[in-house]
Write the C-alpha cells for this entry.
Amino acid sequence: MSNLHKHLLNAPSQLGLDSLNGLVHLNPALSLDEKHRVVYTRDPALGTVSLISGGGAGHEPAHASFVGAGVLSAAVIGSIFASPTVSQIRQAINLVSRGSSKGILLIVKNYTGDVLHFGLAAEQHRATAHDSESADVRTVIVADDVAVGRTQAGLIGRRGLAGTVLVYKIAGALAHRGGSLDQVEALAKFVAKNIATFGVGLEHCHIPGTEPHASRLAVDELELGMGIHNEPGFARIRPYPTLQKLVARLLNHLTSSIETDPERGFLSPSLQRDGKDQFVLLVNNLGSVSQLEMGGIVKEAVQWLRSHGFIIRRVLSGTYMTSLNMLGFSLTLLLLPRKTLRNIPWSDDDILELLDAPAEVPGWPWHAPSDPSVSSEPTTPPTQEPVPTTHDNLPLLAPSNSGEFVSAISRAATALIAAEPEITHQDTLAGDGDAGLTLKAGGEGILRAIEAKRIAGTNVIADILAIADVVDVNMGGTSGALYSIFFSGLASHLRSFAQDTNPASPEMTFQAWSKASSDALSVLFKYTRARPPSRTLVDPLSAFIEALQTPTPGSTTNSILSHALSEAHEAAQATRHLEAKVGRGSYVDQKALKEQNVPDPGAWGVWVILNALFG
C-alpha cells in the first residue's frame, strides 16, 4: 500500500479553507471571502483588466497562490478536484469588477465542469451588469495536454495542465501594464494556442478523507499522460526507463509534427524544426518529486532540446500546478513567435519581457531572466573516479598470494552490492535509509578499480591506498570517511613495516596484517568518539581486530581468523539490543530502535565485508 494516504489536516472538508486562510496570512495584500472561497487582491489597481481563474483545490500553488500584482486578480477554489460553483465564480467577478474599468478575463482550464460553471457565471454577469463596460467579461480556455490525442479528445478537447500558469503570468503582466481587454485576451489566446504539456506519474495521489488504496502501479511501473485529477494515463511502462529515456519520450511527443504524429502534433505548423524554433521550458513538480530529482529532469530536458536543434530562451522549474501529493512531473513547452512574423503584435522578446516581469505572488518561483542558450556550456565534470595515486615513492610489499588477494577484495565488494536491500531495510528502520546504497556505491567503485588494474595485487600498500581513495570518492558521508581513514591508516602502518624489514621486497605475513590492523584501528579512534559497544561499525571491526591480537597457544592462522570472524559476527548481532551512543541512530527513539530488533546497518556492513574476505 502506498504511504501517500497520510495527510496533515484537521478535517478533510476543512482542508481547502484552512489552506486559503494560511495563504492570506502569508500575503497581506490578499483578502479572502471565506463563504465563497475567493482569494482576491485587497487593493486592486484601477483602470486595468482583471484576470480571474480557479478550479478545484488540490492543485496548489495554483490557483490562489498566483493572485497578486502582475498575475491574477482573483482565484475561486472548489472542493478537492471539483469545479467551483457558479455562485462562487459570480462572487469573484463581483469582487474584482469594483476595481476594474477595462473588463474581466476568465482563464479556465479545459475541464467540463470548469468550462460550464465559468461560462454560466459570465453569462449571468453580462445579463445583470449595470452597464456595458462592467458587463464585458470574456473567457479563454486553456487545453495544453498533449497526452490526450485528437481522436480521444473529440469534441471536448484536451485537458488544461501546468501550461495554464504561463497564460496567467504573461497575460497578467500585460494587464498590470495597462493593456486593453482586447490586447490581454488576444495575448492569452496566443499563448494558450502555443503551449503543450505532457505529464508522467510514478503513483496516483490520494484524496484526503477517502480510504487508503493499494498502489495502482507496480513498483517498477510508471504511467504516461496521467492527469491532475488522478485520471489514468494513456500508457504504462514497465520497467520504467532511465530519466534520460523518459524525458526524451515526453519531448518527442511535445515536439512532434502532424506528419509524424497526427494525434499529438499540436504545435504544428508553427513548429518547423529548422533550428530556429524557440521555447520556454517549464518543468513542473506534480507534488512529491524531490528537488534533487527535479534538477536531473531539468538537465535532461535542456540537453535533449539543444541536441535536437531547438533554442531555449527560458528555463523554469518548480511547483506550479500539482495533483495533491502525486509523485510525478510534467514538461511544458511554450513556442515563441519567430522574429519574422508580422501577423501578430508581439515578438518573442515582448513575451519574454512579460514572463520576466516581477510578480508579487507567493506561487511564482524565481527564474533567470536571461537566455540560457547563449550562456557558455558547463565544463566537462571531473570523472567520478579519483586520480590514481602515484606509487613511485612507495616501498614494494607483495601479498603472499596475488590472485587470492585481489579475489578476496572482489568478493567483499560483490557481497556488499548483494547485501544492499538488506542493509537498506535495516537503515530504513534504524537510520536515514541510505546505508545500503552508500556501501553498494563503494563496492561498485572497488570493482571498477579492479577492472582498471588500479587494484592489481602487486603491491599491498598501493592497493589499500587505492581502496581508501575509491571509498572516499564513491561512498561519501560519515561511513565513507571512516572507511577511508581506516584504510589510509592501514596502508601507512604497512608502509612502516615494509621500510623496517630487511629484504628489498618483503612479503606480507599474518603477523604484519594483524599489527597494522590494530594500528589502523587506533588511527580511526583518533577521529571518531565511537567505542565498542556503541551500535556502530566499530563494534564488529574492533572485535575482529582484537581477536587477531590474542591467539590461543597452538592456534593456526585459519583458526585465529575463524575465531575473529565469530567475534565480529557476535558483535554485529549484539547491536540489535544496544542503545546508539553516536551517529544518526543516537537521535532516534532508543526504545523503538530496540523493538525493531535490527542490527546497526553500518555494523552489519562490516560483518558482510569481513565474512566475504575471510569466511
